[in-house]
Design a protein that fits this description.
Rossmann fold; 3-stranded mixed beta sheet; 3 domains; single chain; alpha/beta
Amino acid sequence: MRDALDNPFSPGSDTIPEVWAGRTEQLSDWRDVVRPRRLAGLPERGRTILGEPGLGKSALVRRIAQEASRAGDWVTPQLRIPAGADPLKLVAEAVLKIAADAGLSSSREKRIGDAIARVQAVAISGISLTLRGSDGREPYAALTELLVEVGRAAITNGAVMVLIHVDEVQNITDEKALSQLLIALGDALTHEVEVEVPGGARVSRSLPIAVYLTGLPDFEDMAGARKGATFARRFKSTTLSALDDDDLAEALQEFVLEGWAVPDGTGGSARIRMEPDAAARIVDVCRGEPFLFQLAGEQAWYAGRTPTITAEQVRQGWRGAQREATAHVERILERLPARERQLLQVMAELPAPDRTLTRIAEEMGFSKVTEAGPTAQRLDTVRGIIDRGKPYTFRHRAVEAYLTGDWPNI
């Protein structure tokens, strides 16, 4: 009854987990703000979802894209940017696919045909292309032009959105490529077209286009600091943090109350239940991390064959996952600059009431408190690992557990 084919937990696979936990604020933002405003022709910024590995950034936007697709919207696939790749080529290919699905490739209008031809050239040559047509436009301008045409087609089609998801944006290290991509997407978001409303009047409206960018917190420096106010005006950034225990417990309630439906092997169905203590144990060991939550659930599922997942099976499964959980947190710490790692270590060694900037700066060997200030600010506002309250606390609870105790051992 409990095997690999019916396990509903999926750690780190970049799929949408069947057992979904939290992120209601970001999901509501799409349903109640972004989509209705853009459909109504009202301006609304793109969204940038950032965070440390394992917080479910990609899964979150994949779920938003799934909802959009089910509503009939035109959605690109998850456009993951490999290190060193040309982002304009990848986005151009995806926009051409949407244009084809929208029927633009069969249009007889010259401006649409020209726009498609220019973007086809971008999809082949990317940022290295110098377009030498009569208008002499850069690749980003050609991409913007086609996005506008796709947006016009979406308006004509009715209540349809265009959703673009660019993932691993921190891998765009070429400043020219990043600038052209952000300008192309931002220009499409701010572009207005004239439409006729009942009564014959003509009004301006924004295009029904939404853009989601996902990646590591480093992107905030790459885009925000270098592109300044322009990026901030066109994209609203959110840094994800750990999930609340209540969100995780709610995600497991179906197992506790009704059981999770699985095939019984005879054409019918059975239900896998979970002891309340087992659910509490999963919530405890994962420390609010979506990746670790899925990992703990997956290993508990495999730890037995009975119709009920017990607390002991959670413990058995977690023992097999401890090495992966340790490596997960160590990867987060290893990618931090030395001074940020030092501040976290010092903060972890201090008693909780003494975690003030003054004490932390003293323990780090600084003569002035202000020397530790910028490092603490980055760990708070950029990375979302600490909270600079009075006293300082950890927002990334897995990092805290690793540095202050013997977690992940149980």
